[in-house]
Known about the structure:
- By secondary structure, the protein is an alpha/beta fold.
- It contains 13 helices and 14 strands.
- The strands form 4 sheets. It has a 5-stranded mixed beta sheet, with helices on both faces. A 5-stranded mixed beta sheet has the order 8-14-13-9-10. Strands 2-3 form a two-stranded antiparallel ribbon.
- Strand 13 and strand 14 (about 395-400) form a beta hairpin.
- Helix 3 crosses helix 6 and helix 7 (about 155-170) packs across helix 13 (about 335-350).
Amino acid sequence: MGAITPLGNSVDEFWRGCTEGRSGIGWITVGDPKDYPVKIDGEVKGFCPTDFMDGSEAASQSRFSQFAVAAASMAIEDARLDVAAERPERIGVIVGTGAGGYAEVEAATRAVIAGHAGSISQDAVAQAMPHMATANIARAFGLKGYANTVCTACAAGTQAIGSALDIIRSGRADIVLAGGTEAGLCEIALAGFVAMRALSTRADDPTRASRPFDARRDGFVSSEGAAMFVLEELEHALARGARIFAELAGYGATSDAFHIVAPRPDGSSAQAAMSLALADAGVAPAEVDYINAHGTSTVFNDVVETAAIKAVFGEDAYRIPVSSTKSQVGHALGAAGAIESVACVKAIQTGILPPTINHEEPDPQCDLDYVPNESRLVGDVRVVLKNSFGFGGQNACLVFRKL
Length: 403
């Protein structure tokens, strides 16, 4: 695994921040929030793209692509994968993103409007394209197998990982680099989310703004980052002596077919995605030890997700711990599910459940065990469900299992 997050630019830094209950949310520094009511976001700090590529390559790529290449590089190293020893046509790449080079599009547009079109980089069009993270990972490591980009908003990273599972199962690849990336912190995104009234306007303490399932939640916090996984067919992994952290056992995806941004109120499509993932893994609801929620900190999502979990798990819903990593890193849109999947795998590895921080005032409609405020050592974590529910009603769920 590899990760670039507001809590740190490695899996270890990210997980340490999770287990310590820290927040990566702060005041906006990537631009001037002007008179917008939102002053906070979750920015990646201290990232240097030339740690992972040369200067000319870094200059040609959007920030979202740089994140993805960096996370992929870390994942390949973590997997001890010698790409040169593999058949490159049997290694695929699938990356999820919500927007691609959003910030770079904004900068180029400003230049054109100001009459400085000649200052735009020759790479401007390529930088804007959502698929370029996938393309740049393939170029960086010489990966010639199946390649695709998933653009299903907040579900994109999760769906990319699930799609990789399908590709490996189908026999079209032995290994797939899969995950999600996002770097859309810019004024056009801020203005759009403000108009949507989706963001937290809390202004007293940025670290307390993202508060999933809490009665005083008032919206999500935009963030950025990336996470990538080396997913590998079991026998292939065993043959090369790979370290195996967990099994990706199941995947389910559905569509609400309901509203442009709001979730279906009865949660039926989210419920169906969870049930499909469990069935795909051959896991009964009672076997699940932990649920990593979508948990955006918006009024509607948290209530609907809670109801959907109850519908799937019945009385077991009150036994199974549920937490939202977005309480600590904000909502990284297309990267969110991938970053949160790192937390799922680390929970299996360590037996520690990451908390939902800022859970201070219970909401009567959100009455499950949300692992409030402090991480929890539970020992054996064998089965984890990961939920992601995106704008437009795009739902994707994964099941991770200890081998």
